[in-house]
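batch_manifest entry 22 of 60
target: (S)-mandelate dehydrogenase
source organism: Ascidiaceihabitans donghaensis
requested by: lab member K.T.
priority: normal
notes from requester: please return C-alpha cells only, no post-processing; we will run our own comparison against the previous entry in this batch. if the run fails, retry once and flag.
--- input ---
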Amino acid sequence: MSVNAIHSAEDARLIAKRRLPWMVFDYIDGSAGRETGAARNRAALDALTLRPRILRDVSSRDLSTSLFGTQAQRPFGIAPMGMCNLSAPEADLMLARLAAKYKVPHGVSTVASTPLEQIIDVAEGNAWFQLYFSGDGVGTFKLVERAKAAGYTTLVLTVDVPEVGRRPRELRHGFKMPFAIGPRQFIDFALHPRWSLTQLAAGKPQMANFEMDGYDFDRTESRARATWDTLAKLRDMWPGKLVVKGVLDVEDAAGLKAAGVDGIQVSSHGARQLESAPAPIDILPQIRAKVGPEYPLFFDSGIRSGEDVMRAMHQGADFVFLGRILQFAIAAGGEAGLHRLWAVLSDEMSIAMAQTGQSQLVANAGLDRS
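--- output ---
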C-alpha cells in the first residue's frame, strides 16, 4: 500500500493495525484499565472549538516557534516513546532524522531501542533525554551523566509512573521485554510475516541504554522512591534545561516552578498509567493560569491532528509533543510513512491557522479571547 493512502493519523493507525503483530500493536495503542481515560482525553479535545475569523490576510503562514531560545520549524515535536524499534527496525533513527530536518526536539526515552549517544548525533543535537527515576537511583544518575557527556542540554524527568500502569491489552498477550516467545506469540508473529522477517533481519530490539556496567534494567521495577529531594538533587547536578513531564495538578506545577524547573509538560502519559486521571487538556489552562503567561508549558496526550495541536496551544501550551501516531506512521510506511503523516499534520495545522485568522502562531492564544 502506498504511503499516499495516509491522509490522517487514523489512516496510519488502521494500516499499522493490519501490519503489526497483535502484541506489538496493543502495546503501542493500549491504555490503562478499561481505557476510559483515553476516551476521556479524546472527548475533551473534541469538545474544544476554535474560533473562525474572516477577512484577514493569511496567504502566508509561519508554523515556526521559539523553544528554549532556539527556532523550531513546527510547534510540535516527538514525545519520548520506549521501544520504538518495535514499529520498524531503526524507527528511533527515522525519528531522529525527522527532528534534524525540522529542528524540533526528539524526546529520547530511557527505554529507547537505540543508544542515546547515537540518537542525538543523528538528530544533529535536536534531542532531549527523558529520564525515569527507578530503584535506588544509582542507575538513574549514571544515565544523567551519560546524557550530559553525550551533549544533551535538556533533561525531561517523567514523574507520573511511580508504578507501571496495568494495560490489560498488552498483559493478555504476555508482553514483556525481552520477549518471552510462547505458542501464542509464535502464532502472532507467524501471521505477520512481513514484520517478523524484517525484525529477524535487524535483530531483536534491546533496551539499548542499559548496556552499561553495573546496571540491569527491569521495566517493572518500582519508581516510587522519587521525591522532591530527588528533584532537588537532579536540579543541582543538571546544568541545562530541566523539564518535568506528567503533571496534572496545579499545586504540583507551582511547586515545580518554585523548585527551579525550567518547564512543565502537562501529560497523562497518553492515559497509559492511571485510567481515572483527568483529561490533560482540561487541566492545561488551570496550570497556565497558575504559572503565568511566560513560563514554558508543554503538552502531550491524545493529540491526533494539527487541529489538536492548535487546540492545545489555545489552552495555554507553548509546544506540543506527538507520540503513538508517529509509530503508527512508521509501521504503516516506514520513513516515508513518517514524513507523509508529518506533512499531513503540518497541512492540518496550516489550514487551521488560516481558518482562525492567524499568519503566525500565538503563544498562549487561549489567554486572549478577543
